[in-house]
Structures are given as structure tokens and as C-alpha cells.
Amino acid sequence: MTTHEHDLVVIGAGPGGYVAAIRAAQLGLKVACVEQERELGGTCLRVGCIPSKALLESSERFAEAKHALASHGILVSGVQLDLETMLKRKEQVVMTLTRGVEALFKKNRITRYTGRGRIEGAGRVTVLAPDNTIELKARHIIVATGSQPAALRGVQPAGDRIGTSTEALSYREVPRHLVVIGAGYIGLELGSVWRRLGARVTVLEFLDRILFGMDGDIALEAKKLFEKQGLEFRLGARVVGAREEGGQCRVEIEGGEAIECDRVLVAVGRVPNTDNLGLENVGIERHKNGQIPVNAAFQTSAPGVYAIGDAIAGPMLAHKAEEEGVACVERIVTGHGHIDYDSIAGVVYTNPEIGSVGKTEEQLREAGIDYRKGSFPFRANGRARSLGQVEGLVKVLADSRTDRLLGVHIIGPHAGDLINEAAAAMAFRASSEDLARTCHVHPTLGEALREAAMAVTGKAIHF
């Protein structure tokens, strides 16, 4: 067995892992990164965030060409779908970015090992490759192994007939009827893609609402808009089984009539990839859900072993993992590293987009926090009018006593970009008045955020 020594070994090359490796190299460490997949970038880049956004963008262009350009005085006839080209474009976007990560590894002199990483003891990691085994020694080990789609009891996987987001990103034909199990980020995004491309889409959700954990007003508005687009929702629907029968699929619902369809997307959440990592070899016990317990410095119970991203508690977001990777490495090298979890935003890339940061109104009520709120509709925003995208609103929540921003929630055009301003404001402990008194360029969508902040004190100008 060949042995190599490094200062740091990172297990996993997703957003958390590869960013941690790069930051560590910048700080002078000799870094190795172990990844079992051929391409770098993890689930997010290969079969998650990036390919789904590529398909979302392409499907929106297709829908716009068919239904929306005429209102701009652009007459297009005979619009047809070339799904093969659309999928090739998605794959090209992914390939370009994975090669970009490879280039960054070379630039920062990070040694990449292909194979499955396993902790064998203090400061020791083996790389289990198909043709050999390599031993790595290092003072520090970071577990950044990400997550995988959660399974659902009674649902029998069947290729691309009954599968997860991985399969739904690569259907070779538009489903006639796609059933999506789960009304969260992933289910709604991919359901939207295939609905725009012509599929009938039925979304089944166990709860009595969609987008659990998101602000209730925003989720309610989202459901109305998605229904206008043709998505069908069945809430309070507990799926007890799904199987393929003769090329078709049958989804069984407790207390209800079974649904016949030709594709099923299971999108009921994700679980950490923490099995078979050898954690027991260094005395690390996981939570029941597979998450690895860590302290504020991302240290596990084993000296020299750290964990970040989807492998630990918190929202499973690529940018959260990246920030934890940077903070973890900076703690190791400098003793300092901080993350403000209250200002980490989330985005649903449907059309319209949904962006959220901070507390929801429901969370504030439950915590007994006195707050004021202001909202502003995009239909009263000049830039939204010129874009022809007037659906949705901005909602701002602020502390009743201090006026400090507690949460901002947006559904509307480019909400994913707009929410970054709100996140920055919250990170710097801004008040709603700070946002209200910041001059925003006219005409821009950002003015809607400013007006919502002004509405907290009843002083919105344009509504």
C-alpha cells in the first residue's frame, strides 16, 4: 500500500469540500481531496443545482417563445422542442464547470485522489480505488461527503420510471404524466421544468401546504401561481406505495384512489452521506438521521476530524457548505472563522423565483417576538412592468422595538438575486429604515425591496 502525507485531507469534492481544500491551500497547507466520482463538484454541480438551473432556464425560454413573446410584439410561429439539444446544453454547462474545479485544484496545487475515502484511525485515511488502495496521513481530516436523495417506504425504484432528481434531470422524452412526491424545492423546480415542456404534473404532498419551512404568505402565493401555470396539487396526500407495471407507474395514496402515470419523481428530502466512512474507527457516533455532531468550530468528538455541509446539522444548501468549508479551515489555521447562520438565504428557482432569509412570520409568532411587517407587490414596480413579470411580492419583517431586520421573503422576478441584498443588510444588522433610506436605482426590481421596507412603518410611496 502506497502512503502519502498531507497537512489536510478533505473527503468529498462538492461545494463544501472543494472550497475548503482551496481555502486551505491558500493558507499554506499541503492539501489532498478524495472524491469517488470522476468529476469534481459533488451532487450540486454534477446532478443537482447546476444542471437543474440549466434546464429551468432552457424550459423558461421555450415557454416564453410559445406563450409570452407575442405580448412584446414578437411573433414566433412553429416553436418546437428539441429535447436532445436542451439536455446536451445542460451537460455542457456541467462539464465546463467541473473542468473549472479541476483547474482550480491544479492552480492551488491540491492533490486529488479518485476513490472512496475511509477513516482508518487518527490522522489516517485510506482511498479505496478500483485498482489499488492508497493510505493518506494528515493532522487534519474534513468530512464533506454531502447528501443523497431520501428514500420513501413502499416506493420501488425503477430506472427513470420511478426515480429521484438524478433521473428527472435526464428524461429522454417529455413524460405524459409526471407525479412528483414532495412539494419542496426540488420537486417544484423539476416539476416546473417538465410542465413547461408539456407534461401533465401532479404534486403530492403529505403536509397541508407546500414549501414547508418557508413563510406562509409566500408559500400560499406560490401555490396560486403554480396552479395558474398548470401544476396540480394534492395536499394531505400520504403516499404508501409506487411501482412500475408494464411500462406504466401506479402511485398509491392512503385513503385515496391510486394515480396512474408514466414517470414518478421522489423528492421527499435528502439524507447525509455518512455511511461506511469509518467514523467508528475514531469513536464518532452519528445522530439517528446520519448527521455528524460537531461544535462551533466544526470539530467532531475525534481530535483532528471535522465535518461540514450536508454531513452536519442545518439546511442542505451548497452555499452554506461553502461558507462552512472556509470557516472550518480558517479555524484550523488561524483560530478564527465565523458564520452568521441567520443571514444565509435560500432560493427556489421556479418562475417566479422565491427567495427567503431570516425568520418567517410563523417562527416569530411562535417565539413570541413582537414584529412589524411591510409588503410591496411587483405589479406596482416599474421595472417589473417593463419586464412583463408582475406577479409576486416582497415581504419585510422587523423587530417592533429596535427595527432590526428579522426576515425578508420574496416571490417574484429575480428573487434569487434580490435576496442577496437583504442577506447583506441582515449580516450587517441593518434596520428596515436603513433599507428604506438607501437610494435604489430607478427603475429596478430592487426598488420593490426598498418599498417593502418603507411599508414596515406605513410609508410606502408607490402602493
Task: Summarize the topology.
Elements: E1 2-11, H1 15-26, E2 31-35, H2 42-47, H3 49-67, H4 83-107, E3 111-114, E4 116-121, E5 124-128, E6 133-143, E7 147-149, E8 162-163, H5 165-168, E9 177-181, H6 185-196, E10 200-205, H7 216-228, E11 232-235, E12 239-245, E13 248-253, E14 259-261, E15 263-266, E16 270-272, E17 305-307, H8 318-334, E18 346-348, E19 353-358, H9 361-367, E20 371-377, H10 382-387, E21 393-399, E22 405-412, H11 415-427, H12 432-436, H13 446-455
Parallel strand pairs: 1-2, 1-6, 2-3, 6-17, 8-15, 9-10, 9-15, 10-11
Antiparallel strand pairs: 4-5, 5-6, 7-16, 12-13, 13-14, 18-19, 19-22, 20-21, 21-22
Helix pairs in contact: 1-8, 3-4, 3-6
What does this structure look like?
This protein is an alpha/beta fold. The chain folds into three domains: 2-148 and 272-339, FAD/NAD(P)-binding domain, CATH 3.50.50; 162-268, FAD/NAD(P)-binding domain; 343-455, Enolase-like, domain 1. Helices cover 32% and strands 25% of the residues. The chain has 13 helices and 22 strands. Strands 1, 2, 3, 4, 5, 6 and 17 form a seven-stranded mixed sheet that branches. It has a five-stranded parallel sheet with strand order 8-15-9-10-11. Helix 7 (216-228) links the parallel strand 10 (200-205) and strand 11. Helix 1 (15-26) runs parallel beside helix 8 (318-334) and helix 3 runs parallel beside helix 6 (185-196). The longest helix is centred in the N-terminal third of the chain and has 25 residues, at 83-107. The radius of gyration is 23 Å and the shape is globular. The termini are far apart. The model has no long low-confidence stretch (mean pLDDT 97).
